[in-house]
Amino acid sequence: MSNVLAVIEVKDGAPRRVANEVVTAARALADGLGGEVHALIVSGGGASPDALGAHGADVVYECADDSLAEYQAEGYTQAVAGFLDGRDYAAVLFGATSQGKDLAPRVAGRLRLPLASDVTGLEVADGDVVATRPVYAGKAIARVHIDASPALVSVRPNVFTPVEARRPGAVETVEARVDPSAWKVRRREVLGGSGDRPDVGEAPIVVSGGRGMQDPANWGMLEELRDALGPSASLGASRAVVDAGWRPHAEQVGQTGKTVSPQLYFAVGISGAIQHLAGMRTAGTIVAINKDPDAPIFKVADYGVVGDAFEVLPRLAEEIRRARAG
Amino acid sequence: MNIVVCIKRVPDTAARIRVTPGGGIDASGVKYVISPYDEFALEAALRVKEAAGSGTVTALSVGDAASAEQLRAALAMGADDAVLLQGEVGMDGLATARAIADEIGERRPDLVLFGMKAVDGDQQQVGLMTAELAGLPAVSVAASVEVEDGKAVCHREAEGSIEVLEVPLPAVVTITKGEHEPRYPSLKGIMAAKRKPLAEKAAALGDGRITVRDLSEPAARPEGRIVGEGAAAVPELVRLLREEAKVL
């Protein structure tokens, strides 16, 4: 079979931004294989799948159950594995988001199938799926052959730019094959954090700060810039400031943090240690602001400003706000 | 409380990775370490055992003979014994998971800890796959784990908030940094490590179905430019972001 399944991530009743990227990646793969794209939405019901057809989904399967209203690893694993049982796909694509990185390996393990994680490229070679994946946080790039059907893949957010490719996207309802009595993990509570900003690993715009920010109290200036860039921008941090306890590890960019590929990356007061550069060098556009004109970060930056971040940041936030308003 | 903690030998994150013409990596001059997240997992394992007041921490690695060096380091940090499943670890995490699940099936520990990812392959999958193969429940990316009343209570980092999850033992938990500052081995620990048991056996990896076709170094980014100095450079920077890069 040459069809490709795109597993769609839903938040607050709507497919997330990464969903269109996963469908776009699936469309390109299916075109190479001569098959259709099917999208699978696992949810509590009522997710609006309009955009999926626009990006190339021939069919959208809605697999809804009250028990699946919020992501629950065991339930979603049952639902996806249950859906795949008896269906034949050449490839199954997930988004390599926080959720996808939790779900895809479980589905792969359950189905005894290998998984290529966090890929940045997909191609068809002799009828098989070949994926490109950064390894060592991007210090090297591997092309890997997946000798399995379906080939399970998770795709890195922000890499597969959504492309319009209108298909019917007809919605079909399928039964959610879940058994909540078998779920063993129980959520006691959720602490802190409104979670209204995307994770740094998924955000299309990242504003990262390093030692050059001098003090955690100065992060307000980075927040100003982030806010000026809109709701899809998130904060990142260098390892040095995380190790110093200035920022949470969840924000760390680099080999011992998150490897990111946003469309736009600001490195502010970050000199550019090798493990940081590895983690962000695949960003679309890199802007570096640093006092030291010899800082290694300028070697990977598209645009550099040499200067005091405390003078540059407020002006930059103001000009960007104006540019976006105009 | 018997805990297995899985560790991997990887190049130090400060190392430059040089790709050889044969498509491997040039190991000369590269320092190898326990993958940093696995070190956090080992620290978590030692704390759980200390809190329980009894039990064992077994360090397990799948890899070639050289991985014994990292297992000795784990013993020096405080693991009680170690097992090296010898085999060639490739890009197929399912094969690695199969070997580990086999060993888990024999040992039947209460808790199996992994680093949430290894910093060489960056696949972030072996822990959760092992759980599936072993039929154990799992929590991933836990910033902390504590055991109470036969359950592991985990704080999981998820999109800006923290979920408090509980899972009955036996279970698999993959660990992120959290407050897991790995302890330094004491001189006594290093001496004791030499006498602690380190078993070696063949890893039941099976056939890997993900194979590397080629490995390359990333293309250099096109030469960037210094837009200017200080706040005066900002209007030009914003113009370039808007009109040239088209990202605003």
Key structural traits:
heterodimer, A: 326 residues, alpha/beta, seven-stranded parallel beta sheet, five-stranded parallel beta sheet, B: 248 residues, nine-stranded mixed beta sheet, 6 helices, globular
Shape of chain A: globular
Main beta-sheet strand count, sense and barrel state of chain B: 9 strands, mixed
Biggest interface, CB < 8 A: A-B, 91 and 87 residues
Q: How far apart are the first and last residues' alpha carbons of chain B, in Å?
A: 54 Å
Find the count of extended strands of chain B (DSSP E, 2+ residues): 13
**What order do the SSEs of chain A take from the amino end to the carboxyl end, as H and E?**
EEEHEHEHEHEEEEEEEEHEHEHEHEH
The stretches of 5 or more residues of chain B where confidence is low (pLDDT under 50) are none
Order of helices and strands of chain B: EEEHEHEHEHEEEEHEEEH
Q: Count of helices of chain A?
A: 9
Explain this structure to me?
The complex is a heterodimer of chains A (326) and B (248). With 326 residues, chain A is an alpha/beta fold. Chain A contains nine helices and 18 strands. In chain A, the strands form four sheets. A seven-stranded parallel sheet of chain A has the order 7-11-6-1-4-5-12, with helices on both faces. Chain A has a five-stranded parallel sheet with strand order 15-14-16-17-18. The longest helix of chain A has 17 residues, at 17-33. Chain B is of the alpha/beta class. Helices cover 28% and strands 32% of the residues of chain B. Chain B contains six helices and 13 strands. In chain B, the strands form two sheets. A nine-stranded mixed sheet of chain B has the order 9-8-7-10-6-1-4-5-11, with helices on both faces. In chain B, strands 2-3 form a two-stranded antiparallel sheet. In chain B, strand 4, helix 2 and strand 5 form a beta-alpha-beta unit. In chain B, helix 2 (68-77) packs across helix 5 and helix 3 (93-107) crosses helix 4. Chain B is globular. In chain B, 52% of the residues are buried. Classes of the chains: A alpha/beta (326), B alpha/beta (248). Chains A and B meet through helix 3, helix 4, strand 7, strand 9 and strand 10 of A and helix 3, helix 4, strand 7, strand 8 and strand 9 of B. Strand 18 of chain A pairs parallel with strand 13 (225-229) of chain B, so a sheet runs across the interface.
